[in-house]
Structure formats: structure tokens, C-alpha cells
Amino acid sequence: MSQYFVIHPVTPQKRLIHRAVEIIDQGGLIVYPTDSCYALGCHIGDKQATQRIRKIRNLDDKHHFTLVCRDLSEVSNYALVDNSAYRLMKTCTPGPYTFLLKATHEVPRRLQAPKRKTIGLRVPDHPIALALCEELGQPLMSSTLILPNRDGPLSDPQEMREMLGNQVDLVIDGGYCGIEATTVIDLVEKSPTVLRQGKGDASWLTE
Predict the structure, then answer these.
(1) 171 - beta bridge partners?
(2) CA-wise closest residue to 169 among 16, 36, 20, 9
(3) Which residues, including other chains, have CB under 8 Å from residue 66's CB and lie 6 or more apart?
(4) Which residues on adjacent β-strands are paired with residue 33?
(5) How far is CA 73 from CA 52, 79, 135, 156, in A?
(6) Which DSSP state fits 181?
(7) Nearest partner of 167 among 23, 61, 49, 47, judged by Cα
(8) Could you tell me the pTM of the whole model?
(9) Which domains does the chain have, with CATH numbers?
(10) How far apart are the C-alpha atoms of 171 and 138, rounded to whole Å?
(11) Which residues contact 114 (CB under 8 A, 6 or more apart)?
């Protein structure tokens, strides 16, 4: 059975955040809360942990993984961002949005969409997620926790632990955080395109 930490959703305990990041650094796969729903997270360079996510979610190689960042200062290391894209991202972050951008060489190929060489990036508005990224010192490789036999994300951390068992190394209980995935905005082309309408309001893009 995985470890289970109850972390305060507003003022995360530094001791538990540190222990969670130790698990990530040691090749662990964690479940953690975001501003949209719970997600699976691991070290960006950990191939084995990434494969565990694919197995849990039954994902093919066309799936877009997301790098969860502490702020926009990290984005240019992992994606090609022009001025207009940066301005748009700045108005939406932190928040429940995922942006698709062309990946740089800093992103392992296995995380990129195979044909377009893109990667998802986001800065969540959630203290636990941001504290994890801050302690880790780099983005958290992430994917929404939606199981193959479910229509939407799981919301109860206790249920997650029971269902996933030893498939993950840690479940962080940060309370209820929602069951609606992020809004996905494609910024690869000059005109931003909403690929998935989720929690984040994107109506202003079509006004």
C-alpha cells in the first residue's frame, strides 16, 4: 500500500512537502491535488515512473503529458514561447489552464507528442502543487488522474489509495479540489485554439 500524507491545502507543511519530494527524487510516483483535480506526478527524467503512469491510465504514445511549473520563468526552458503566447499565458496563470507549445530539447522525447513535438505546460493555482515544484526545483511531470474505467477524475484521496494500492508510492490528501480537468489551449499556431473546454474560462478567446 502506498504512503499517505494529509497536507494542508492552504498552508502545506514543509516537512511533508520535503518528504514527498524525496519520494519523487527516488523514482516515486505520487498523487497530488491541483486547482482543477487530482493528478499523477513524477520526476521529468524518470522513464520508469512515466511508464507507470501510462499503465495506470492505459495511455498510448499520442497522449500529451504536462509539465507543472511553479511560475512562468521556467516555461522557456521547456517550450518555445513567443511574446504573444507569453502575454496570453501571463493573463491565465496561475490557473486551471494547460498550454500546448513546441517542446525544446530539454523535454525528453518520450514526453512529447510524437508528430508535433509538443508538450503541455501549466502553472496551477494550488499551494500544494506549487510547493512541490518549488521544493523539487523543476517542473513536475504530470497527468490527470483518470482511470480507464472512469468517465472523470477521482476526487476522494482515500478511494485513490485503495484503488491504486502499490501502483503509486504516495497519495497526498489535500482535501477536495474538484473533478473538472483543465482547459487546454493550443499555442503552437499564431491563433490560440481551445482544444478542450475545462475549468478555466476561455470564452474571451472567441470574443
Answers:
(1) 4, 31
(2) 20
(3) 98, 119, 120, 121, 122, 141, 142, 143
(4) 38
(5) 29, 11, 16, 33
(6) P
(7) 49
(8) 0.93
(9) 3-206 (3.90.870.10)
(10) 20
(11) 61, 62
pLDDT per residue as tens digits for the range 45-103 = 899 999 999 999 999 877 778 999 999 999 989 999 999 999 999 999 999 999 999 99
Grid cell 481551445 — which residue?
194
Is the omega angle on the peptide bond into residue 94 within 30 degrees of 0, that is, cis? yes
What is the C-alpha to C-alpha distance for residues 35 and 192, in angstroms, rounded to an integer? 22
- State pLDDT tens for residues 44-61: 989 999 999 999 999 987
Which grid cell sits at 157? 484521496
CA torsion angle 7 147 104 24 (round to 10): 40
Contacts of 115 (CB under 8 A, 6+ apart): none
Residue linked to cell 492505459: 58
